[in-house]
Write a structure and sequence with these properties.
Layout lengths: L7 H15 L4 H16 L4 E5 L2 E9 L9 E5 L5 E5 L3 E2 L5 H12 L7 H4 L19 E9 L2 E6 L5 E5 L11 E12 L2 E12 L12 E7 L10 H6 L4 E6 L15 H10 L3 H14 L4 H12 L3 H16 L18 H16 L3 H14 L7 H9 L4 H5 L1
Parallel strand pairs: 8-10
Antiparallel strand pairs: 1-2, 1-5, 2-3, 3-4, 6-7, 6-9, 7-8, 9-10, 11-12
Helix pairs in contact: 1-3, 2-3, 6-7, 7-8, 8-9, 8-10, 9-10, 10-11, 11-12
Length: about 400
Amino acid sequence: MNRTGRDDRGLAELDNLIETITVDAYGDDEQFWAFRQAFEDKISVPVDGFVIGEPVSVIEFDYEGNERRGLTARCRRDDGSEHVVSASEIVLPQRSLGASYVAAYRKWQGLDPYPPSATETKLRQHKAKADDLDLTAPIELVVVSVKENAARCRLLDSDRTVTLRARLLWDAVPGTIITVKPNKRWSFNGHPYLSGEVEATRLDAAALDLVPLRLEERGVWKPDANDLVGDRVESIIARDRRLVFEMEQVRPGLNSGIPFSDPIVESNELKEAGYRTDAYRLLMDLCQSDLRCLDAHAHLGDFVFGCTPGEALCHYEVGLRIGELSLGSGFDGLLPWEYVGNRPFLHCLHGFGLCLWRLGRFEETEQTFDRMLHLNPSDDQGVRVLIEDVRARKVWEELKG
């Protein structure tokens, strides 16, 4: 996969957008004006954004006829100061419509449409303002990390963050949505805090409004009966050829140019060395940086699998449901283990199935393991050995005790 995590289809979409914007514009000046009009029509201001990793509020896009400077953006910082920068320096949240228009503008200028600051650097987050938190009504928050008796959250349908302090956070894992009956709000060291009572917790991946992980086509799979066993041979071969895909893998902080910079490897090493708290916090930091880091959800599930399978189930399911945003309904392709990008999703699916089994939910376990074999017929995770015990309704504790 490329550095930005975008495949050729994503770049082609930007080319189509550029063509749509500039179709009736001739010469650079007219095309600048065309982009200026597109920004005005499609990007509602003020809008939260970033300049060199610093959070700002973009309050205006403009073009003053200077082709060397191009489009500009007037930005306001948290302290109220304003400054004007090139529009190509602006990074908007990936899930926003405006992000595509800024990327198209950068590509039209011959720049990387998705600069490193938008894809690799941990950006400082926008903070919730006092008027974002209405204490007279329940507030819905997306949990992005949990530490002790506090949860870092963002407002639902927003990227603005707040730290929640509440007593009952047991069901609040990164990626879940909690409904809070607010008590009071305050600020400490410039960061907003909220206290209250958690009234409900739910998992709704679609409501998180995340950019789905991209799938890259890797060819066509032709079933071979010699590679399959049991009663699945006939049903799998009947499907004949199927497309093979690799899922985009998100790991905030991973720098391909720096050896040993993999945060998942670092977390595992800390855990093995006995620094479990540090390892756990690192995984939470990954979720806070990007909820699409399926590896973090899977390893958080592994962390508590042995003692609290119910909590582990929540972690695995969050990663599973976020990954499913990329598949849509009726997905009939393959996600083979041999492609590294697929492993976090398959890890979540495997952990989800094992937790269901431990909790005695046999039918769901069987469905999950069947799905794993459908997605990855080579069965690198050994599901075909387990599924017979599940079908026989053998209790997990009796087999593993």
